[in-house]
Amino acid sequence: MDGSFALTIQIVITVVAGISAQVLGEYLKIPSIVFLLIFGIALGRDGLEILHPELLGTGLEVLVALAVAIILFEGGLNLELKELGRVSGSIRNLVTIGTLITFLGGGMAAHWLGEFPWQIAFLYASLVVVTGPTVVGPLLKQVTVDRRVATLLEGEGVLIDPVGAILAVVVLDTILNKSPDSVEIISGLLFRLGVGAILGGVSGWLLGTFQKKANFVADDLKNLVVLAGVWGTFGLSQTIISESGLMATVTAGIVLRAFSIPEERLLLRFKGQLTVLGVSVLFILLAADLSIASIFALGWGSVLTVLVLMLIVRPLNILICTWGNGMNWRQKFFLSWIAPRGIVSASVASLFSILLTQNGVNGGDSIKGLVFLTIMMTVFIQGLSAGAVANLLKITSDQATGAMIIGCNPLGRLIAGLFIYAGESVVLIDTDKDACEKARKDNLPVIESSALDHQVLEEAGIESFGTLITLTNNGDVNLMIAQRASEEFTLRKILAVFPNNDDNNIKTNKQKINQAFMSQFSMKTWNQYLIDGQFKLGKTTIKANAIDLQQIHLQTMISTGELLPLLIKREGKLLILVAGEEWKIDDEIIYLLHDSRPDLLKRLSGNIQSSRFSLDKLKEVEEIPIYSLDKLSTLEITN
Predict the structure, then answer these.
(1) Chain centre distance of CA 67
(2) DSSP character at residue 449
(3) Does the CA dihedral 246-252-254-257 come out positive or negative?
C-alpha cells in the first residue's frame, strides 16, 4: 500500500510540475521545455530529491515508448503534404544528406573535442541528428516566421526523428556486437524504415477508412479508436523488428491526414492534448533522473563539441541541403540557428545508458550527460533567442518582405524579377498557361492556378509575404481577389490595379486596399511597351537638397503617362509603390520610362535595347543607364 501510494504521489507531482511548466511557458512566451528541464532537475536527485523516477522501474521505458509513439504520430498528423511539396527537395536532403553530415560532424567533434572513443562519439552523433518536433512546434507558435521556413523546420523535426532513432539503434547494435559491417548497417537502417513505412501506411489507410465510414461511432470514441490503432501499429512494428515502430507511427499520421476526415479538427485537438501531456511527463521524469555532476565531469571539451554542432555542422548542413531552393540568406540563417534537440534524443539516450552499462561498455552515463548538455544548450540558447533572431532577420510575419503577384503578364514578371535579384521572396500566380511558361523560362517561382481560390493562396504562403499585388488585365478581377484576401488573411499590404471610381474607392477604403503605382494607370498600355521593347528601366535617389523639385518633376512625368514608378527601396527594403505615396529623403525610386524611339535611333544613340521584353536584362540592371533628375529633364520623348 505504501509503495503504491508513493508511486501515485510521484506521478501526481510529475503531472502537476509538467503542466505548470507548460502554463508558465505560454504566459511568458518562452519554449516550455526550458521550464520542464528546470522543474525536472530542481525536483530530481540533484535538487530537492522529491521525484525518484527509478521507482517506476521498467515502467519508465514503457511510458517513454508509448508517449514517443503518440508524439511522432501527432507530428505526422500535423504535416500538410501540399506544403511539404513546396520544400520537399530540401526536406529530403535534410533527412538524408543532412543526417549524414550531422552524424559525421558530430562524431568527429565528440572524439576530437570531447575526447570520447570513436564508437561512443558516433553513438552520440546518432542520438543528436534529430531535431525535436516537441520543441520546434511550440517555438514556431510563439515566433511566427515565414511559412516556408516553418514548414521546413516542422517537416524536418517530424521526419528525421524515426530516421535518427533507427540509426542510433543500428550504431548501438554495432557497438554491442563488435562486428561492424557497413552493408549490415545500411541494410538494417533501410529494412527498419521500410517495415515501418509499410505498416504505418496500411494502418493510416485503415484508420482513415474507419473514420469516414463508421458513422455509428461517436466522435469521441473515434478518437480513442485512433489512439488504440496507433499503439497497436507501434507494438506490431516493434514486434516484427525493433525500433521500426517510430517510422510506422509517423507514416500512419501522414496517411491519415491525407484522408481529410470530417472530424479532423477534433482528432488534431485530442492528439495535441495527449502530446502536451506526454511531453510534460517525460521531460520532467528524464530531467529528474539526470546527474548534474556527470555533466560537469564532461569538461569544456563537451561544451565545445555542442558549439561546433550548433555553429559549424548545422549551418553547413543547411547550406548544402537548401542549395538552389530559392530561399534568401535570412531564411537560411534562421534555419541554421534553429535546431533544438528534444524528447526523442533524451529518451533514447536514457535507454542506451542503461543498455551500455548492462553490457559492460563504459560511457553510458557520459553519453547521456552529453546528450542532455546538447538539449540544454540548444534549447536555452537557440530557443530563447529565436524571437530576437527572427526579428533581427526580419522574417517574422509582421516584418514579412517580398511579394505575391497575381498576374504573369510582362509587368508582373518584371516586378518579380526585380524582387528576386534583390534577394527577396516572390511568387507569381496566374491561370494563363503560356504566361506561366514564360515565367518558368525566366526561373521565376510560379503557380498555375486561380487566385480566387482561398486554398491556392494559403498553400502558396500568402501570409509569409509582405505585399499582395493583383495586376491581371482585368481590373474588376484584381479588386475582387484583393477584397477576398483582405477578408480571409492577415496581410500587411494589399495593392491592386482597378478602375478608379467612387464605388471602388469606398470599397477599398473600408478594406485597406491601395491602388498600385499611380491613380490613372493602363495595364494594357505598359505591358505592350514591355513587349515592344519601348522602355528603359531606371532609378533615382531622392536628395535632401532638391526633394521638392524632384518630386514635382517626377510627378509631372508620371501625369503625362511617360513614367511609371514601380518600386521604392527604403531602409534596405524593396517595396511596391502605392499611388500617391509621399517619398522621403534617400528613397530610391525604380521606374519604367516609355521610350518610343525607333530601334535604329536607339542603336545610333548607343543605347541598345532588346526589341522584346526579357528578364535576362535584369541581370544587367546595374549597367542600365540610371537617370538622374537633370537627365530626365533632357530626355526626348516622342508621342
Answers:
(1) 25
(2) S
(3) negative
Position 516, amino acid: A
- Give the strand pairing for 535-541 and 588-594: antiparallel
CATH number at residue 463: 3.40.50.720
Residue pair 372/302 in contact (Cβ under 8 Å)? The answer is: no
For 305-358, write each residue's pLDDT tens digit.
999 999 999 999 999 998 877 778 888 999 999 999 887 788 888 878 877 877
Number of domains observed in the structure of the chain: 2
Domain that holds residue 575: 400-634
> What does the CA dihedral 503, 504, 507, 509 come to, rounded to 10 degrees?
-110
Instruction: Kindly report whether the global pTM for this prediction surpasses the value 0.70.
Output: no
Q: Nearest CA to 499 among 465, 483, 523?
A: 523
- Sheet arrangement for strand 493-496: 446-448, 426-430, 403-406, 467-470, 493-496, 513-515
Question: Is there a single domain that holds both residue 391 and residue 408?
Answer: no
Judge whether 262 and 217 are in contact, CB under 8 Å: no
Domain-embedded: residue 370: yes
**Rounded-to-integer distance, Cα 598 and Cα 636, Å:** 12
CA distances from 267 to 4, 71, 84, 204, 270 (A): 33, 14, 21, 14, 5
Q: What CATH number did the domain enclosing 330 receive?
A: 1.20.1530.20
- Which residue type is seen at 94? L
